[in-house]
């Protein structure tokens, strides 16, 4: 090794002897400098570092594997979410990756996951680029002291420039993300998308916590009110977890990954990873103001000839992102722990415009909608016509769940009953018609509905059941026009609404068939009322 910046970490347990330069535990400023020097990106006028992640601007779920071994063989829910990988192939790939890194400079960072000390997981992340290491600084919890000489429990190696050879290495294509529970190691190659690193460790925790420790792990954001009441927001990508948890009236616990142990919930992470598309200071002030020196912007464009970010520009991707440490949000809770939640919100971005903007769920309905994990994407077709597409992702995060979804659902069901939690279904998606006809629910109304639910202002209003989905819709809500609360009334043609609503209900029923044998009659009956004609 020719040059080491700061201390030399113990890499003896890895095959990384011949490295040119090793940069250990650099500060954000040093990482920003390194990134600029290496031409990884440039500074925006706000001081944030802007980089491009390359070919991949999102995760690649089809290239995410788990090594089949004694730990995973009979525990993991194998299939197209958790794809099997051969242990010998992993070892070969590992040797190739470490040989690749040994010939060049790399960055090492010791960090940890889980704000609750009882569940701390020490993680060492080795990255080929400086920007990835900055991301790790932000998204993982920053330990006060690190011991360079110690061997951490888990190791992640992420090298965007390393390409697998699918024919030899057993991958699907050049890029991959592989979790090995026996070796406690994650290999990420061929992709520079930072989200792969955080979602890798999330998947690990989604195995360890429920399986070994009986702690529920959740794909959700969380915040806490002035009275100490915690709220949790589940939802798939783009449904509003990050946006809605950033609430100036409440303190932020975290925006994406949490655990729920006996009496408290805790963040797995030390920072946020927010979508930037169409971001404005007016509608999302906290996130906007977090974009400053140290923050990492991904795949944005500047206004021509300037270093001012054009948040409306989606030329590289719709999934433009910014990451920053939790303390960049001024009312963050650190360490990020809160009491068991009083309210749980299931967020869905229903592009069909069918589900009510807010409704209250019974405990059985909560189980049904949690297991269903519905949202709708807006997808393009070959003719350039854009139409909505239903997505069902169990527990609002199937892609990150190594165990069968019912494991998580049962844990949640017990906790909802034990803590007498209010559960709400919130549609942050379309109103007045499907995508194309209607429009997205205004953020200020969604925020008002959530505030009303949290402040108990919906406790004494009248509710009416939805005629197909059975969920209970409030007839009024402070600061929200009454006529948008029932979606049927927002459509130009209510008969068409009924028709489309029945179609969506049929999709729910069809999707739920695979979970029927794990469910009770009460949960099955809590789904939409629908007669499917064959
Ligand atoms: P991920 O899991 O990918 O991090 P997320 O659930 O955190 O996704 P957000 O980053 O909060 O999703 O994205 C929600 C996006 O939708 C934001 O760009 C936000 O501005 C936009 N949006 C528009 N209308 C609403 C609404 N009514 N409620 C919530 N978000 C809305
Ligand atoms: Mn988010």
From TrEMBL:
Record-level GO BP terms: gluconeogenesis
Enzyme type, top EC level: lyase
PROSITE patterns: PEPCK_ATP
Residues the record lists as binding substrate: 59, 193, 199, 321
Protein residues bound to Mn(2+): 199, 219, 256
Cofactor binding comment, as recorded: Binds 1 Mn(2+) ion per subunit.
UniProt GO molecular function: ATP binding; kinase activity; metal ion binding; phosphoenolpyruvate carboxykinase (ATP) activity
Superkingdom of origin organism: Bacteria
One GO CC term on file: cytosol
Localization annotation: Cytoplasm
Stretches assigned to coiled coil: none
InterPro entries the UniProt entry points to: PEP_carboxykinase_ATP, PEP_carboxykinase_C, PEP_carboxykinase_N, PEPCK_ATP_CS
Record Pfam families: PEPCK_ATP
Pathway the protein acts in: Carbohydrate biosynthesis; gluconeogenesis
EC numbers on record: 4.1.1.49
Catalytic activity reported: oxaloacetate + ATP = phosphoenolpyruvate + ADP + CO2
Entry cofactors: Mn(2+)
Binding, ATP: 199, 219, 235-243, 284, 321, 446
Family, similarity comment: Belongs to the phosphoenolpyruvate carboxykinase (ATP) family.
NCBIfam families: pckA, PRK09344.1-2, PRK09344.1-3
Functional note: Involved in the gluconeogenesis. Catalyzes the conversion of oxaloacetate (OAA) to phosphoenolpyruvate (PEP) through direct phosphoryl transfer between the nucleoside triphosphate and OAA.
Protein name, per record: Phosphoenolpyruvate carboxykinase (ATP)
Lineage: Bacteria, Pseudomonadati, Bacteroidota, Sphingobacteriia, Sphingobacteriales
């Amino acid at each position: 090794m020719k040059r080491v910046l700061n201390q030399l970490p113990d890499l003896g347990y890895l095959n990384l002897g011949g490295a040119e330069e090793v940069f250990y535990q650099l500060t954000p400023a040093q990482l920003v400098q390194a990134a600029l020097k290496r031409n990884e990106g440039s500074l925006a006028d706000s001081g944030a570092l802007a980089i491009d992640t390359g070919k991949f601007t999102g995760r690649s779920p089809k290239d995410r594997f788990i090594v089949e071994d004694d730990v995973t063989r009979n525990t993991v829910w194998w299939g197209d979410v958790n794809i099997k990988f051969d242990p010998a192939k992993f070892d070969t790939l590992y040797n190739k990756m470490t040989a690749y890194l040994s010939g060049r400079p790399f960055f090492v960072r010791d960090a940890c996951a889980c704000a609750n000390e009882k569940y701390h997981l020490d993680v060492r992340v080795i990255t080929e680029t400086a920007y990835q290491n900055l991301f790790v600084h932000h998204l993982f919890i920053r330990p006060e002291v690190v011991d360079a000489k110690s061997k951490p429990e888990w190791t992640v190696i992420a090298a965007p420039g390393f390409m697998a050879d699918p024919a030899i290495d057993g991958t699907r294509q050049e890029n991959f993300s592989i979790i090995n529970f026996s070796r406690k190691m994650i290999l990420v190659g061929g992709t520079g998308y930072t989200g792969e690193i955080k979602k890798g460790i999330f998947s690990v925790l989604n195995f360890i916590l429920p399986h070994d420790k009986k702690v529920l792990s959740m794909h959700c954001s969380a915040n806490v009110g002035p009275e100490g009441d915690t709220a949790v927001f589940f939802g798939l990508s783009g449904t509003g977890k990050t946006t809605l948890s950033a609430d100036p009236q409440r303190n932020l616990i975290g925006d994406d990954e949490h655990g729920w142990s006996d009496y408290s919930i805790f963040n797995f992470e030390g920072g946020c990873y927010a979508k930037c598309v169409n971001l404005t200071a007016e509608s999302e002030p906290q996130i906007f103001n977090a974009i400053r020196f140290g923050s990492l912007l991904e795949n944005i464009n500047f206004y021509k000839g300037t270093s001012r970010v054009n948040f409306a520009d989606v030329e590289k991707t719709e999934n433009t992102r910014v990451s920053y440490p939790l303390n960049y949000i001024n009312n963050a809770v650190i360490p990020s722990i809160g009491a068991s939640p009083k309210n749980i919100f299931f967020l869905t971005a229903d592009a069909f415009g069918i589900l009510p903007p807010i409704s209250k769920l019974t405990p059985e309905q909560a189980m049904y909608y949690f297991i269903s994990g519905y949202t709708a994407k807006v997808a393009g077709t070959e003719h350039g016509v854009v139409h909505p597409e239903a997505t069902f992702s169990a527990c609002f995060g199937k892609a990150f769940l190594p165990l069968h979804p019912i494991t998580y659902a049962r844990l949640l069901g017990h906790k909802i009953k034990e803590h007498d939690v209010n559960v709400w279904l919130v549609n942050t998606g379309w109103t007045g018609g499907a995508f194309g006809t209607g429009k997205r629910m205004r953020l200020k109304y969604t925020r008002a509905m959530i505030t009303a639910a949290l402040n108990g202002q919906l406790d004494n209003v009248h509710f009416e059941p939805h005629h197909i989905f059975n969920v209970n819709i409030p007839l009024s809500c402070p600061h929200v026009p009454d006529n948008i609360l029932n979606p049927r009334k927002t459509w130009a043609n209510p008969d068409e609404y009924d028709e489309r609503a029945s179609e969506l209900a049929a999709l729910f029923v069809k999707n739920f068939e695979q979970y029927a044998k794990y469910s009770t009659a009460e949960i099955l009956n809590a789904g939409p009322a629908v007669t499917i004609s064959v």
